[in-house]
Structures are given as structure tokens and as C-alpha cells.
Amino acid sequence: MTDSWLALEPGADPVERARTLRRAHEAFTEAGTVPQPVRPVVAESWRRSVRAGVGPDGTASVELMDDDLGAYRAEHPLAPVMPLIRELLGTFAADGEHLLAVCDAHGRLLWVEGHPATRRRADRMNFVPGARWSESAVGTNAPGTAVAVGRPVQVFTAEHFIRRVQPWTCAAAPVHDPRTGRVLGAVDITGGDGLAHPHSLGFVRAVARAAESQLALLAPEPPAAEVAELTALGRDEALLAVEGRRVRLSRRHSEIVVLLAHHPEGLTGDELLCALYEDEAVPPVTLRAELARLRAVLGPARLVSRPYRLTMPVESDATVVERRLRAGAVTAAASAYAGPLLPGSRAPAVERLRRRLADGLRAALIACADPDLLADWAHAPWGEDDLDVWRALAAVRPTAATRSRLAALESELAAPGAW
């Protein structure tokens, strides 16, 4: 499949795929295994659903009704763009016997509109305004998964985690606050198997982008707080982008900025000394000289002391990977991982951060058992000797080349003096 976020590849038989997915869903709920052809985004969502305690025979609960629902909707940031969403999606939903739905950032449905007969069917599974359809409440579903992973997604029939939802197909896209990037909710189209077409995913994505543009016009963007972007994965000299300027930092300055970005509350001089230098005999004046040079590079107002800290927020590529891992979005985390954090650094604290990030990602890859993700790691420079990953890859994709490489690694490990 060329795009794992699409439910069906071109030419696929939806009836046969639905049958295969039902068998895969049963295998997962009974044994915890995820067979092919379940997409990685769905497999990860199923696992998050189980970790959240969702059962396949559950149902959505209605949390807001009547006046409470009306008051919440009236104050919600998406309320001003509902006329636009209805204009773009409403006719399509009504004519196609589908439903238009909009949820908040917690997966709670705020508006559900569309064909009357379809709405009556949806009512029976509590797909109604005020009901919570987050992944943690009802498992895999398009609006709940879209807000969980922060990107558009289709969910086709038995890809839904709860069985009573499996007759349905849906596509949803998150809507972000144009000023902060925060997810405000999602726009969803729900109906029959025909919505597995790529056009439905593109359609809701376009509607979500139009809603974001309308929000930007309704509330002009104020002067944004200065946010620096730090790129430190897979490179020894980090890049810092701030106010349109890109600065290549020296190796020592890269270590300092990585550590201060990880500790926005700041670090004392003694803490920085311990974090940066293996040799405890390094005098504080050495560190102060490095910090003075770094302050000259960044600008005096961006690095202050007592404790040492950066005065602007920093978004690092390592933080992005960590955040996606915490959300259970393994595919997204792997795509953001460009290599080990400052791989040449011997600063003790950087080594700990580097090891923690790499171990967390590789453990998630092994647990999710997606052959493509495992292969990407195994064939990367940092994974070519990773025995555990090669074993996991051989278990799900036992090609001759994989078995050969695994045998070579195991032979090297068993050789006298290997460790």
C-alpha cells in the first residue's frame, strides 16, 4: 500500500478485505497478535485501546446533554467555523446517506448531522452529540484516532475496535488552532464502505484545512512567542533555528543547548559540570568560558544564569520523538527519528538521553512488530548490528537475506572474545 493512512489500496476488494479484517480482529482480541494486512496505524491504535482498558463489546457513553451540551458547543473554538464545515461537508453527507460529525480534542462529539435514516442507525451505537468517542473510551475510530495521532485517518469496517461499530467506515482529520498548533478537535465523515475511497480522506483533510484558515481570519494571529527549533538527531553539531536564522552549534554548545532545552527550568553551574564532563576535575571556569561563547552566539538575552537557562522555548526533534512515543504513535515517532542524539557526544547526561530515546523507540518497534518499521531500523547505520531488532524482523519477515544477516550476528555474538 502506498499510503498506510488510506484504508484500501487501489483495486482492493472491500468485501474480501472486510472479511480478512474481521478474522484479524478476532485474532487480536483472543491472542493479542496482529496479523497482516492490518495497517500499522490501526495495529498501534488497537494496542492503545487495550492499554486503555477498552473491550471489543463496549459502547460509547453520553457525557453531555441538553443545556450542558448547548453551552459547551456555544463556547467551543470550532463553533464559529461550523457554518463553513456544513457548507463544505453537509450536502455530501446528506446526499450520500453519510453523517458529518465534529468532535473536540478529547474525542467528545459536539455535532452529528446528515441523512435522517443514517442518524437513526448511528443513534443505536451512541454516535450522538455529547458522547465520548476518544480511543481511550471506545477504541479505534476515525475521529478518536485522528485527535490521538494528530493527523487524518480512515477507519474501515473491522478496523474499528468495538464490534458494534464495525459495519461503519469513517474518515476524519484534526483541526488545529492556527496560532498555537494545538488540536481543537476533528472533522469526520461516517457512513458505508464507499468512504474507504482515497477521496474521502482528502476531502475531510481539505475541510479541516479550510476550517483552520477560517479560524485564522476570524482571530488574526497575534505576535507569536519566539520558539526555537533544535535539530540534534543523527548529527554531532546541532542546528538551532530562531527568528529566521539558522545557527550551526559547536559540539560543546550543541550539548549545552540540548541539556538546557531538556531542562527549561534551568541547571546550576555544578549540575551542568556533572552533566557535561566525565572528568570531575574540570574547573568551573572552563564551563563559564563555554557559556560566555554560547551567549555571544545566541544573543545575551537568550541565555541567562542563576540558574543557567534558555529564555525562549525550544522544540527539539528529540522531544518530538519522545512525545509521539508517549502517545503510542510508533510510526510517527520512527519517521521523526533521524538517528541517535548527538552520536559523537561523550557528555554523561547526553549519553543517558541518547540511550533512553533509542531504547524507548526500539522497544516500541519490537513490540509493534511491523515489518516495515523493523526493516527501516535494522538497515539504518544505528540498527545494522541490533540483534534484538533483527530477531524481531526475522519473526515477521523471514526472508533469506534477513535470516542470513541474523545468523551472522548470532555467530559474531557467540565467537570467543566477542564481548
TrEMBL record:
<feature type="domain" description="OmpR/PhoB-type">
    <location>
        <begin position="244"/>
        <end position="310"/>
    </location>
</feature>
<dbReference type="InterPro" id="IPR001867">
    <property type="entry name" value="OmpR/PhoB-type_DNA-bd"/>
</dbReference>
<keyword id="KW-0238">DNA-binding</keyword>
<dbReference type="InterPro" id="IPR003018">
    <property type="entry name" value="GAF"/>
</dbReference>
<protein>
    <submittedName>
        <fullName>GAF domain-containing protein</fullName>
    </submittedName>
</protein>
<dbReference type="InterPro" id="IPR029016">
    <property type="entry name" value="GAF-like_dom_sf"/>
</dbReference>
<dbReference type="Pfam" id="PF01590">
    <property type="entry name" value="GAF"/>
</dbReference>
